[in-house]
Amino acid sequence: MGATHVTVTIRNPADPERSWEDLFLVDTGATDSLVPGKHLEAIGLSSRGRRVCELADGSELVMQITVAEIEFMGETVGGTVIYGDDDAEPLLGVTALESVGIEVDPVNQRLKRLPAVRLKGMRPV
User: Fold this and answer.
1) Is residue 17 part of a domain?
2) Residue 58 counted as domain residue
3) 84 pairs with which residues across the strands?
4) Which of 52, 60, 71, 81 registers the highest number of CB atoms within 10 A of its CB?
């Protein structure tokens, strides 16, 4: 299976004029998104804490996190963003995708919109 990429803009929620845009790898194995730390700092974001992250090889690493607006495919969601190494490839995690009702079509290697955002366990009003 190939890789799926999408253009993502990361914004500072306190100052939306400050943003950074790049092509992100869609990573359905990642819960949160990851951005090279130098770009988060450049738009005025600072660490809001640390989180233990499990890497693909099973090892664990303590990484800094922050909160940002994540914009892609005409949708915007607030989410946790992990500070990556300055040369890290940006990753779009599954939480951002699911929050706006978008999933990966693995056959066509494209993102597709669901007819509705899933809210399992909710009763109709």
Assistant:
1) yes
2) yes
3) 36
4) 81
CATH number of the CATH domain containing 16: 2.40.70.10
Question: Which range marks the domain in which residue 95 is found?
Answer: 5-113
Residue 45 to residue 22: CA distance in whole angstroms:
17
The backbone region for 34, taken as left when phi is positive above 0, alpha when psi lies in -120 to 50, beta otherwise, is beta
Single out the residue of 5, 1, 17 nearest to residue 111, CA to CA. 5
**Predicted TM-score of the model (pTM):** 0.87
In whole angstroms, give the CA distance from residue 22 to residue 33.
13
| pLDDT tens track, the chain, 125 positions | 568 899 999 999 999 999 999 999 999 889 999 999 999 999 999 999 999 998 888 999 999 999 999 999 999 999 999 999 999 999 999 999 999 888 888 777 788 887 666 666 656 66
In the chain, the number of structural domains is: 1
40 falls within a domain? yes
Q: What is the rounded end-to-end Cα distance, in angstroms, of the chain?
A: 40
